Every structure is written in structure tokens, then in C-alpha cells.
Amino acid sequence: MSKYIIPHDHIITKENRQAMKGHKSCILWYTGLSGSGKSTIASKVEEKLFEMGMHTYILDGDNIRMGLNKGLGFSEEDRKENIRRIGEVAKLFVDAGIIVSTAFISPFRSDRQMVRNLVQPGEFIEIYVNTPLEICEQRDPKGLYKKARAGEIKQFTGIDSPYEAPENPELEILTEGRSVDECAAQVIRWLQQHHYIPVEEPALPNS
Ligand code: ADP
User: Fold this and answer.
1) Would the N or C end of the chain have less CB density within 10 A of its end CB?
2) What is the residue with the minimal CA distance to atom 10 of ligand 1?
3) Is residue 186 part of a domain?
């Protein structure tokens, strides 16, 4: 970094922003095979959080690969850079006091660890969406497995590129045989139990 780039001490801090919103900010980092349910669960969790008055945002392939990371491909180097930039953007959202979700396969442990290291302890919540490959392949919501099996897509995670499952994720979601709603409720419960978001008080009976 240039010695002439001197950080400015802003008056309003992350803690001020969190206090204003009434919840902590963090990264909900969903990882798992293509079709495991990352985007679907992230979206349902966001819906529930939004209804509870929490401030949220989702970073996904649509808004990242089409914009900030438009120039990046799928080489090993570019995949790494893709995750690094997503991590840096997510960090800014945490600073802004927002609960930010990311829904990317992010198959490599070292890349996920790199993002974890960018933020403070407790701010990176790794959510392993654990769905067996056979189920993901049956679901094939975007027809990508079919293309990968036909050799039209190379280096497809789970087929001819590895997926390194998290060893110690904060949360593991088994989706097989469970509804999206149940899976999303598991995330909400975890956030409440770990005091990231308030527990809604039951309404007091009329006295
Ligand atoms: P990813 O973002 O991991 O690539 P998607 O969310 O796009 O995966 O697709 C997951 C597919 O699996 C969707 O079609 C979704 O409806 C289906 N699905 C079935 N059960 C579940 C579940 N319990 N959780 C999440 N998705 C599920």
C-alpha cells in the first residue's frame, strides 16, 4: 500500500450502525455443491429476516459475476480472485451494519479461510449446505450437471473438480428430505441463539 494512503478516522463506527439497527452485522457464507440449495435457503432466510425488521443483502452470481467480477473466468486464479473480491465486498457490508449473505459454491477451504480472516471473529458464519451429489444432480435446477456430464462444461465442481467440505462450519444444513422453510428456520434459530438478532417476544396478554 502506498505510504501516502492514510486512513481517515470516521466518527460513525460499525458499532454505532449496529446499535441503530438493533442487530449485529455478519456474513452468512453459504457453501455447497451447485444445486445444493444455497440461493434458495439464503433467499428464504432473507425473507424471514426482512419480516423481522433486519437489514439484509444477498451477494450472488447474478449481481457479482455480472458486475464487479465481469472480467473474471473460471481458471484457478480467477476463481480465487472472485472469492477474494466477494469477501472484501461482504466485509464492507458488515462495516455498514448489514447481515450479508453470499451464495457461492466456494469449493476450496483455503479461499473460505481467507475470507474468514478478513473480518473479526464471529463475523464470518460458514453455513455448509450439505446435499449429496446424487440429489443435486437429480434437482439440476439450471441443467448444469447434464451439461457437465456431456462434457460441455469443464471443471465442474463435484464432477471433474473437487469440493472441499467445511471441517468446522458454524452451521450445517442437511436439505435432503427437508423443506426450504425448515432449513431457513434452522439458520434463524442459530442467529437468535447466538445473539446476532433479537428473539421476538411473544405478545403480552391484555391485562
Ligand atoms: P445453489 O444455489 O446451491 O446452486 P439452488 O438454490 O439454485 O442451489 O437450487 C436448489 C434446488 O433444490 C431448488 O430447485 C430448490 O427448490 C430445491 N430444494 C429442494 N429442497 C430444498 C431444501 N430443503 N433447501 C433448499 N433447496 C431445496
Assistant:
1) C
2) 37
3) yes
Within a domain: 157: no
Give the DSSP letter of residue 161: B
Grid look-up 441443467 returns 143
56 Cβ below 6 A of ligand 1: no
75 catalytic, yes or no?
A: no
Find the CATH number of the domain harbouring 67.
Answer: 3.40.50.300
Q: Is residue 59 part of a domain?
A: yes
Is any atom of ligand 1 closer than 6 Å to the C-beta of 34? Answer: yes
Supply the pLDDT for residue 8: 86
Q: Is position 136 within any domain? A: no
DSSP H or E segment with residue 109 = helix 109-118
Distance (Å, whole) CA 6 – CA 39 = 38
- Confidence (pLDDT) at 1: 63
Q: Specify whether the CB–CB gap between 22 and 99 falls below 8 A.
A: no
pLDDT of residue 200: 77
- Which residue among 28, 63, 139 has the greatest number of ligand 1 atoms within 8 angstroms of its CB, and so is best to mutate? 139
Low-confidence ranges of the chain (pLDDT < 70): 1, 202, 206-207
Structural domain span for residue 31 = 14-131+163-193
- Number of independent structural domains in the chain: 1
